[in-house]
Amino acid sequence: MKILTTLLSTLVLSLAMAGTALAGESVNINTADAATIDRVLLNVGPSKAQAIVDYRKANGAFRTPEQLAQVKGIGLKTVEKNRDRISLGGARAPAAMAHAVAVARPAPKPVVRR
Question: Against a cut of 0.85, is the pTM above it?
Answer without folding.
Answer: no
